[in-house]
Design goal:
By secondary structure, this protein is mostly helical. The protein has 8 helices and 6 strands. The longest helix has 10 residues.
Length: 186
């Protein structure tokens, strides 16, 4: 089998602070062809072929790193359900069932794609590895600052019907005024 151009095990960005399309695909664990749809779904702005990592973390994951150690943890590629199942000891079918029921004992991760045409749940849920590893080992997970996003409340739509989905949004300026993004109350 040919080796991937971007190795997920030794993932490193070429330009610090930015993901190019292939790096974002490797970080998300998806095909490079999927990046455009995911970027559109999460309202990510392509800046001359690059996506700012802070915008990706904020809009896709709903978190903001507090310091450089947090940034290093967030730069690790996201992990799929097979990895999540191996870390937690839960079968994938149980994970899907518990997510649907709202009873999963772990963070539910982020859903990158929308529901398929047949109504089946997509297999594009990803997790932040540092959080799951800490919880699986009984340790306190990293405490990233949470950001209010629409990403967790997106309705599912048929595949390819990204147009009908409201884009995940965040008003950074409103958060700064309210003191939520490292700012002080104005």
């Amino acid at each position: 089998m040919p080796k991937r151009k971007t190795d997920r095990q030794n993932f490193k960005q070429r330009k610090q602070g930015f993901f190019n399309q292939s790096e974002l695909a490797a970080w998300l664990g998806v095909s490079p062809n999927s990046v455009a749809l995911i970027a559109k779904r999460f309202n990510l702005t392509d800046l001359d072929g690059s996506y700012p990592e802070a915008a990706v973390w904020r809009k896709v994951l709903g978190v903001i790193p507090r310091h450089e150690d947090d940034r290093a943890l967030l730069r690790r590629p996201l992990k799929c359900s097979a990895w999540f199942a191996s870390k937690t000891g839960l079968p994938r079918s149980t994970i899907r069932r518990k997510i649907r029921a709202g009873t999963l004992e772990y963070p539910v991760g982020v859903q990158l794609a929308v529901e398929s045409e047949g109504g089946f749940a997509p297999r594009s849920r990803r997790w932040i590895p540092s959080i799951i590893e800490a919880l699986a080992e009984g340790k306190a997970p990293p405490a990233f600052d949470q950001v209010e996003t629409e990403n967790a409340r997106l309705p599912l739509a048929p595949a390819g019907d990204v147009e009908s989905l409201p884009p995940p949004t965040i008003n950074v300026f409103e958060q700064i005024v309210r003191g939520g993004v490292g700012g002080t109350q104005q």
